[in-house]
Amino acid sequence: MRIWLLLLFCLLAVVPQSFAVAVALFDEGHGQPFHVRGNGPLDLSQLAERFAANGFEVRTTTGTLDAEPLDGVTALVISGAFRPLSSGELAAVRTILDGGGSVVVMLHIAPPLGGVLELLNVDYANGILHDGSRAIDNNPQYIRVDRLASHPLTEGLVDFAVYGCWALRGTAPSVEPVAWTSTQGWVDLVPDGQPGPGDVRGPFAVAVAGHVAAGRYVVFGDDALFQNRFLEGSNRLLADNLVRWLSRGKSSD
User: Fold this and answer.
1) Best label site of 42, 71, 113, 166, fewest CB within 10 Å?
2) Is 216 a domain residue?
3) Closest by alpha carbon to 78, among 52, 55, 56, 47?
């Protein structure tokens, strides 16, 4: 009897570690106007539901990203930040990656997240992408993206939509583009709303993924693609792929 009790005790001591609940923390402490608990068209409640449906515990924080709110976090989601992270917060993000966690970034305006992107070896263009050949509703900033890399994030996808997207570029070999515009894509550097000699043309990445230390990340150049208003059809499938990718761990790459 004592041996069985000892074995049972050992089993119970192991189970919480083996079946620990994955935790997704949504940062709302850097001026984000769109929230997980909100049900407005530009909020992220439906995205949070996709995380919950795939077994994640969804948390939010409006405070500083330091050791306390990040304790036990599997995936950190930073969407639509308007204020930069401090040096201490960047160090905390690096700690998540060092521990094998994941970071997801969606850009509304890119400059405030320059420090995060530098940590992830990602750079961004000085303007919003246009692609008239893939325009949605005749708006060249609303782009149907159909050039997709073979990646768990694009599994089963033919295309998805972005609604005001920053061009992205990896600055290290570990960064790979996940999706990009057609060759008719251009960045309005002038800016005058029209393609011209002062603008930069070519295919541009709208999403990139990579690794830092033991962790991994994905950066989307747009934060609208997962907002309630746009989370349908292929964008919803992309969201489900994202959540599954995060839940499987690094070995799924």
Assistant:
1) 71
2) yes
3) 47
Read off the tokens for 204: 């541009």
The model's pTM: 0.90
Does 7 fall in a domain? no
Closest CA to 179 of 167, 163, 187, 189: 167
- In angstroms, the CA 6 to CA 190 distance is 72
Residue 90 and residue 206 in contact, taking contact as beta carbons nearer than 8 Å = no
Cα–chain center distance at 12: 35
First-to-last C-alpha distance (Å) of the chain: 46
Look at the chain and report how many structural domains it folds into: 1
Task: Give Cα separations from 143 to 38, 93, 166 (angstroms).
Answer: 26, 31, 12
Q: Which whole-number Å values give the CA distances from 242 to 173, 205, 245, in the listed order?
A: 22, 17, 5
Host domain of residue 69 = 15-252
Burial class (CB in 10 A: 0-12, 13-18, 19+), 54: middle
List, edge to edge, every strand of the sheet that includes 139-145. 135-136, 139-145, 160-163
Mean pLDDT per 10-residue interval, the chain, length 253 residues: 45 45 95 96 98 96 88 96 97 95 97 97 94 94 97 98 97 96 89 78 95 97 98 98 88 60
Residue 66, in any domain of the structure:
yes
| Domain membership flag for residue 71 | yes
Q: Which three-class secondary structure string do you get for 143-156?
A: EEECEECCCHHHCC
Q: What is the CATH number of the domain that holds 144?
A: 3.40.50.880
